[in-house]
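call fold target=DNA polymerase III subunit delta
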Amino acid sequence: MIVKEWTAIKKQQLAPVYLLYGEEDYLLHETKQLLIRHAIPETEMDFNFSLHDLADEGSLEAAVEDAESFPFMGERRLVFVDGAMFYTADKKKEKQPTDVLEAYLQSPAPYTVLVIHVPAEKLDERKKITKLTKKSATVIEAKKLTVNDIRGWIKSKVADHKMQIEDEAVEKLTVLAGTNLFMLAGEIDKLALYAQGADVIKAEDVTLLTPKSVEHNVFDLIEFTLTGKTAQAIELYHDLLRQKEEPLKLLALLSGQFRLIYQVKNMSEKGFSQQQIASRLKVHPFRVKLAGQHASRLSGEHLKKVMLELASCDLALKSSSGRKEMILEMFITRLPIFVK
């Protein structure tokens, strides 16, 4: 978590240069919003804020010129640079000469907050511009949160509403809504509005108001088929179709989940912990935990049969001009046969 940096921004203890990167888009978005709210007054946005998108014909040279310009009728300027791919190893997207930025970083303007966003998980640490920026800027890496981090983040977001949330409600919220922070933030806002005056968000509030994510519905669908509840699986499938979910998308989610189940089973049998599996597969530990529950019911041979059937179903869906809904429904109906 990047609590320390956020706290400093809220206190207007601002650095002259920020470098933002990482795989958790919500945390990057929130950091940008905090800087916009606290760096300059809203009334100055029209003349002391500028955005330069390098992925859309923006110029790094123009951005630095903006950063060097004195603020107009205010204390500081706020300059955003998006799409700074020259910090990565991707040479295809490296089109901006960095000399002008390197010179600026040697002595950043004290009246400007320059925010550079790199839309990538990693920086190329070998590059001169990366080394120089790390020496002179506040670097914020937005990492994917662990399960425990997400629990703490949910409580923190609820606290922003001057409320609390039961531990059981936290667990139910992550189960139903998943671990996407954008989605969770929306659900928290809705729950806080509903529970206004009660001061505490309860588990029953979450059950009443929070719809299941598509991914969790797919998890339930697999659970129903593996436990012999085919009728409930088909009913859930029809519900998803009524919600305008495409059969091909649902098949992709099913394939991804079974592939994860297969990988988790293999790695668990080799002695890897859930956290180690999550790290090696680069998936959230919560997904590994759910996959492990299914993996315990299936043998490796069963899973191979299911994967072959999924491949056949995928080919049928992509080549058929008929009712694609029926192709996936037939797979769901037959699935218990392949795991016996």
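return ok
Residues 177 and 184 are 6 Å apart (CA to CA). The chain has a mean pLDDT of 89.
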